[in-house]
């Protein structure tokens, strides 16, 4: 929660621009209702307060990795997760009702009739979060459905869009599955500079904290000092790091690492790889070779293939997911650098098009700056809603 | 994945029958598509908006030339405007100001943008192209092993790095670098800072401190070319806080559309000085607006194709081949080399993808059976020949053919196809060879070997490009021998080819 709070704070800092944009859109053709009584404003404020109270129960997981072994706590969690949406609707209803009955529970401030022009502007607003043209279109259309011609305030619009985004994101917010099989092999792939090594360091530390024995294979034998970087992370996390000299074949290192992990009975083997752009056929071939080689040791490996994506990436993220999915059979995503000014709308677009699970998000450079993905928090943060 | 802008526009303009001049409505419809194309290419929204407005003003009422469609006309206007914006009005002939030794260069940017790699690439360039003595210093005290990374890179490229002293603050390291640079007689010293978010006050203050200590001649913002809408914020914030003098776009060898380039230029007004094109230490180039403009519009990157050919074909080898060709000699060894060359350049699909308007073609070619597999088989066939046979394919009679086909695990008919192709190509070579030394072949080869790229490419406008593409499309599927032309199969050589024929 605190992690998401951090993210949210950062996002809110920047989403003020989004706010301004939205306010500008709304006030552009609004009927000035500035004289609305302030009592209404407080009434509206009360609604989100309920939301806050629910939130802690929505995101109880502090660890992005939830072992299926702990079936019991999971079962306990499920009802808690299932309830809030119902309550959320209930909380929304009075305001909807209130709006029909004399617009009592609405926010103070300008309102604007939802029309084609406004929809187009909203769509642009979403595009400016990197959501992409298509997905933005879909979100605005879903929001507008049945509300065409109604007068909406900017807060309402935000809430509606956040709800729609949360709906899209809900199915992809799953923690990385853990299996009984040891060593469970986790292959980490991505383009250059997306944050693979850092993510491995953070993940290893969390697994370690969860009582798993972890081995890391420093498979980035290409970039200068990549191995050293990972070794520092390994020291921080208290996890052994297997290395190979710079310029050597990463596949052979992966094979050795498999052997060692099997011998030492480690629970998890995390394999780092060099960054590669998805359109470089030769480098992608190298990746498939790594997979082939570890499959010699364990035909079911790699059990997870994590694609690390930079949240500041624009629409090229879709190409990246597409290419890596085809060649490396990606099983889940980790989004990094969500603490920047990027709002990460591309996540929505990815969820919409590929539906790959988002296991975790990176929100900083510290070892514990890795959080599970929470669709609701993400959606509210993306839309710049304050609770 | 993305629809090419010209295709998009041709869809819109198919409905239009009126010609003569572009009406306001025509332009509006077209520009909606342009805007979507820009947004999909990751051009920031406000920038795209302003840009479209500017184009609208320019386009309305323009006469449409008879030979081009209104769609092509709009594409040309958009392309020109793009180049205009990307170029800017600053006529900076000097790429980097590195006079008054020791000249400090400060490198800033987000995490993972490629600062360290770019620092080393630039240092190598300064050293080799301008003969400067360069000192590099890493101020990245946060990321594990970042300083070590720069040190290793320095060793690789033969550039000195400031000795690492643990526990120093960035500003202190900068001071030390300045001192060492002036005492050691360096012309330039480059400061590679840690990646930072533009909204992180603490870290931004740290760069400010470094800037104040060194007073850099150049402050270069290194940005990932794949960046999305966020590019504007980053550029704005860095420019406001630190004051940048130029931008370097990295990862432009990816298949991103590079819309960030336009956003950066428009928001900061600062020139884009270089683009990073790979992981190797010499994979950095000066920024060329025309190429990026074409790329943002999804018109394919002909120039990139040519340069890729330059990369893979070793100049010497090409020279030797040229000599042989002009003499009219073309044997199986040459052919094999050509086929291998094609594979190296990413195979048929890769080649097609780079040519404008050839996206669809790639499929057609595939259907017609001429794909990478075929090339590989043909190479296998050639490899099954003896040395003598390769040098002189005329030797081949039935028994030899049978043996070769067997050796490659293929049918004799396939070998016959290969031989036919070879004959056609050899004929072509002879003809071209006879055209003399200033002939087309030489020009085509020059295009591959020479640095500047073939003439006419630079100022090739979209309309001409479309023409060339048509010519290409016309000739490609028919002549199966053409792809095998290897060097000649490059668009510059080929487009000229189609026309003269």
What does this structure look like?
Chain B: It catalyses: GTP + H2O = GDP + phosphate + H(+). Chain B: It is found in: Cell inner membrane; Cytoplasm. Chain B: It is an enzyme of class 3 (hydrolase). Chain B: Part of the signal recognition particle protein translocation system, which is composed of SRP and FtsY. SRP is a ribonucleoprotein composed of Ffh and a 4.5S RNA molecule. Chain B: Residues 271-284 form the SRP54-type proteins GTP-binding domain. Chain A: Its main location: membrane. The complex is a heterodimer of chains A (387) and B (501). Chain A has helices at residues 2-28, 38-58, 71-100, 116-127, 133-144, 154-169, 196-209, 226-237, 250-264, 281-297, 316-328, 346-353, 375-383; strands spanning 111-113, 151-153, 184-190, 214-217, 241-242, 268-272, 304-310, 332-336, 358-362, 370-372. Chain A has 13 helices and 10 strands. With 387 residues, chain A is an alpha/beta fold. Helices cover 53% and strands 11% of the residues of chain A. By secondary structure, chain B is an alpha/beta fold. Chain B has 3 domains: 2-87, Up-down Bundle (Four Helix Bundle (Hemerythrin (Met), subunit A)); 103-287, 3-Layer(aba) Sandwich (Rossmann fold), CATH 3.40.50; 328-352 and 370-434, Orthogonal Bundle (434 Repressor (Amino-terminal Domain)), CATH 1.10.260.30. Chain B has helices spanning 5-14, 24-40, 45-59, 70-87, 115-130, 146-157, 170-183, 201-214, 231-241, 259-268, 289-296, 302-312, 315-326, 332-344, 347-354, 359-367, 372-383, 387-391, 398-408, 412-434, 440-449, 462-475, 491-500, and strands at 103-109, 134-138, 160-161, 188-192, 218-224, 246-250, 272-276, 284-286. The radius of gyration of chain B is 26 Å and the shape is globular. Chains A and B meet through helix 1, helix 8 and helix 11 of A and helix 2, helix 3, helix 6 and helix 9 of B.
Strand order across the largest sheet of chain B = 3-2-4-1-5-6-7-8
- Silhouette of chain B: globular
Distance between the termini of chain B: 35 Å
The CATH topology of the largest domain in chain B = Rossmann fold
Helix segment tally of chain B: 23
Q: What's the Cα radius of gyration of chain B? A: 26 Å
Average the pLDDT over all residues of chain A and give the rounded result: 78
Q: What is the number of helices of chain A?
A: 13
Beta-strand residue fraction of chain B: 5-15%
Shape of chain A: elongated
Low-confidence stretches of chain A: 12-16, 32-62, 66-107
In spatial order, strands of the major sheet of chain A run 5-4-6-3-7-8-9-10
The beta-strand count of chain B equals 8
CATH architecture of the largest domain in chain B: 3-Layer(aba) Sandwich
Helix content of chain B: 55-70%
Major sheet of chain B: size, sense and barrel closure? Answer: 8 strands, mixed
- Distance N terminus to C terminus of chain A? 14 Å
Strand content of chain A: 5-15%
């Amino acid at each position: 929660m605190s992690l998401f709070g951090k993210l949210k704070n950062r996002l809110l800092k920047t989403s003020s621009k989004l706010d301004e944009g939205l306010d500008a859109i709304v006030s552009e053709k609004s009927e000035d209702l500035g004289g609305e009584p302030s009592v209404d404003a407080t009434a509206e404020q009360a609604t989100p307060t309920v939301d806050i109270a629910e939130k802690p129960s929505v995101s109880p997981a502090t660890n992005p990795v939830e072992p299926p072994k702990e079936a019991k706590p999971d079962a306990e969690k499920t009802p808690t997760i299932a309830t809030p949406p119902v309550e959320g609707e209930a909380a929304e209803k009075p305001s909807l009702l209130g709006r029909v009955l004399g617009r009592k529970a609405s926010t103070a401030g300008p309102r604007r009739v939802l029309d084609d022009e406004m929809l187009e502007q909203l769509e642009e607003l979403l595009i400016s979060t990197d959501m992409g043209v298509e997905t933005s279109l879909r979100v605005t259309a879903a929001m507008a459905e049945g509300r065409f011609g109604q007068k909406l305030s900017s807060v309402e619009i935000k809430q509606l869009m956040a709800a729609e985004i949360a709906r899209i994101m809900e199915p992809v917010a799953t923690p990385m599955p853990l299996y009984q099989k040891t060593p469970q092999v986790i292959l980490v792939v991505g383009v250059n500079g997306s944050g693979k090594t850092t993510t491995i360091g953070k993940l290893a530390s969390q697994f370690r904290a969860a009582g798993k024995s972890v081995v890391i294979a420093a498979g980035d034998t290409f970039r200068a000092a990549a191995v050293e970087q990972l070794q520092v992370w390994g020291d921080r996390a208290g996890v052994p790091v297997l290395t190979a000299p710079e310029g050597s074949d990463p596949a052979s290192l992966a094979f050795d690492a498999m052997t060692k992990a099997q011998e030492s009975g480690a629970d998890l083997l995390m394999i780092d790889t060099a960054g590669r752009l998805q359109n470089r056929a030769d480098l992608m071939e190298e990746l498939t070779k790594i997979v082939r080689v570890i499959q010699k040791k364990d035909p079911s490996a790699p059990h997870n293939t994590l694609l690390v994506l930079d949240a500041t990436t624009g629409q090229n993220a879709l190409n990246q997911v597409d290419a890596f999915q085809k060649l490396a059979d990606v099983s889940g995503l980790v989004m990094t650098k969500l603490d920047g000014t990027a709002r990460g709308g591309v996540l929505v677009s990815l969820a919409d098009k590929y539906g790959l699970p988002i296991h975790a998000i990176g929100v900083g450079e510290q070892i514990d700056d890795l959080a599970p993905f929470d669709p609701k928090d993400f959606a509210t943060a993306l839309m710049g809603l304050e609770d | 994945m993305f629809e090419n802008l010209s295709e998009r526009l041709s869809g819109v303009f198919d409905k239009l029958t009126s010609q003569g001049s572009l009406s306001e409505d025509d332009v509006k419809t077209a520009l909606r598509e342009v805007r979507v194309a820009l947004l999909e290419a990751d051009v920031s929204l406000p920038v795209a908006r302003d840009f479209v407005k500017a184009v609208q003003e320019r386009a309305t009422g323009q006469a449409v030339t008879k030979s081009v469609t209104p769609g092509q006309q709009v594409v040309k206007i958009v392309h020109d405007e793009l180049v205009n914006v990307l170029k800017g009005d600053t006529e900076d002939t000097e790429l980097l100001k590195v006079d008054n030794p020791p000249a400090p260069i400060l490198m800033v940017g987000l995490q993972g943008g490629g600062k360290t790699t770019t620092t080393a690439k630039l240092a190598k360039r300064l050293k080799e192209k301008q003969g400067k003595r360069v000192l590099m210093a890493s101020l990245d005290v946060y990321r594990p092993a970042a300083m070590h990374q720069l040190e290793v890179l320095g060793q690789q490229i033969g550039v000195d790095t400031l000795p690492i002293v643990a526990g120093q603050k960035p500003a202190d390291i900068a001071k030390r670098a300045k001192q060492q640079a002036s005492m050691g007689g360096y012309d330039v010293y480059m400061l590679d800072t840690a990646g930072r978010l533009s909204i992180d006050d603490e870290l931004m203050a740290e760069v400010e401190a470094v800037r104040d200590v060194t007073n850099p001649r150049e402050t270069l913002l290194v940005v990932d070319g794949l960046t999305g809408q966020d590019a504007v914020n980053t550029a704005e914030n860095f420019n406001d806080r630190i004051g940048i003098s130029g931008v370097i776009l990295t990862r432009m060898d990816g298949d991103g559309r590079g819309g960030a380039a336009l956003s950066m230029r428009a928001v900061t007004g600062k020139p884009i000085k270089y683009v990073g094109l790979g992981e190797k230490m010499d994979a950095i180039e000066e920024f060329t607006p025309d190429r990026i403009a074409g790329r943002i519009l999804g018109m394919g990157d002909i120039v990139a194709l040519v340069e890729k050919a330059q990369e893979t074909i070793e100049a010497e080898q090409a020279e030797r081949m040229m000599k042989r060709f002009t003499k009219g000699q073309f044997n199986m060894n040459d052919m094999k080399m050509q086929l291998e060359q094609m594979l190296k350049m990413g195979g048929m699909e890769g080649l097609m993808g780079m040519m404008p308007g050839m996206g669809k073609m790639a499929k057609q070619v595939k259907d017609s059976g001429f794909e990478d597999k075929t090339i590989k088989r043909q190479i296998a066939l050639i490899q099954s020949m003896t040395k003598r046979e390769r040098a002189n394919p005329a030797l081949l009679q039935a028994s030899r053919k049978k043996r070769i086909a067997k050796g490659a695990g293929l049918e004799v008919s396939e070998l016959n196809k290969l031989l036919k192709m070879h004959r056609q190509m050899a004929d072509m070579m002879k003809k071209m060879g006879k055209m003399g030394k200033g002939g087309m072949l030489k020009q085509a080869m020059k295009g591959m070997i020479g640095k500047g790229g073939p003439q006419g490419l630079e100022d090739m406008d979209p309309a001409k490009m479309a023409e060339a593409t048509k010519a290409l499309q016309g000739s490609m599927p028919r002549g199966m021998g053409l792809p095998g032309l290897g060097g000649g199969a490059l668009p510059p050589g080929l487009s000229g080819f189609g026309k003269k024929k």
